[in-house]
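Q: Could you fold this chain for me?
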Amino acid sequence: MTQSTGSDPQKVVLAYSGGLDTSVILRWLQLTYSCEVVAFTADLGQGEELESARAKASAMGVTDIRVEDLRETFVGDFVFPMFRANALYEGEYLLGTSIARPLIAKRLVEIAVETGADAVAHGATGKGNDQVRFELGAYALHPGIRVIAPWRIWDLTSRERLMAFAAAEGIPIEGATDGASPYSTDANLLHISYEGGRLEDPWLEPEPGMWRWTADPAEAPDEPRYLELSFLGGDAVALNGEALSPAGLLARLNELGGRHGVGRVDLVENRYVGMKSRGAYETPGGTILAKAHRAMESLTLDREVAHLKDEMMPRYASLVYNGYWWSPERLMLQEAVDFTQRRVNGVVKLKLYKGSVSVVGRRSDDSLFDQAVATFEEDEGAYNQADADGFIKLNALRLRTAASAGRLNSSAS
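A: Sure. Below is the predicted structure, expressed as structure tokens.
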């Protein structure tokens, strides 16, 4: 057991899930610092019974227990702004875990201020990205806050030691049996992630029984499902003509996408702390939403605006992944992104079929698509094809000059 040193905190706000790690951390904080612990559990749509976390914290002597429904805030104020940017980390990851951390960090420090706590604590390990995300967020919003990260200072460095500590302290741990899932998972309304177990060998295919949210694409319905998503200002606001709240809409898309096997990803990603990590993700609703949003932009954004926005996207995605949601550069990029979304309005028609989502139609009153110009039929003078001659020659001038000077020869120095 790590001994406390220096000035011990009097009150700590803990990001508490009720699972093995944070339950052990709760007791460890009490024993190490003799401090009061405020337990904060965020309902982000993880689909678990969160009241059990309240009961467990109460059994460990915690009197200030907060279980907060943050689903609408999570989707409306965090997921939707990120999707306006089309953020995709390393070309595949829709950032489901990453985008949840700034909201949790925000509430941690807000509760610390409300309760007069002098520290916050989290259960992220010293190997992962989440420690960075939690702490960068906390320091950005409350520069003087103290952050306690037990995994970086205690000696409970394995699951076996955690289980032994829990048994010694009488902490009940659901699922702590030989039949428990071998995977470390994180879930919210945007996705569920899987790490560890069989996935630690990047050659091994995930076991079919691992997936929780999505049907096996091969066993998904044989008939495709069509749906229409309506957008206003870059955000999805209605499904098949029915207006829905941000969280309600994403939940419905999760249900539809999951039924048709949409949204499975198996990838090796580069963590901010320097290592490569293999993970699997299910993001059914987010996959549909991302596809539809890009389709809506294709109709309504100016070409150069769209291309410049795509150039900014990898930087935006990295900022979210690495924990810089509250940084001035992310806020600056968000202003630029949101400026582009003012006329991203209209309806996108999609087809879900055996693991795929396809765009099959789009319409908008703010469309920049001009059928009279684009048509392969007679355009009645809307576009003078002879104008292309000068356009091509002017753009070819530098290439012809370079070729004449021998600069385009692959063997030239």
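A (continued): The domain at 191-301+343-358 is CATH 3.90.1260.10 (Argininosuccinate synthetase, chain A, domain 2).
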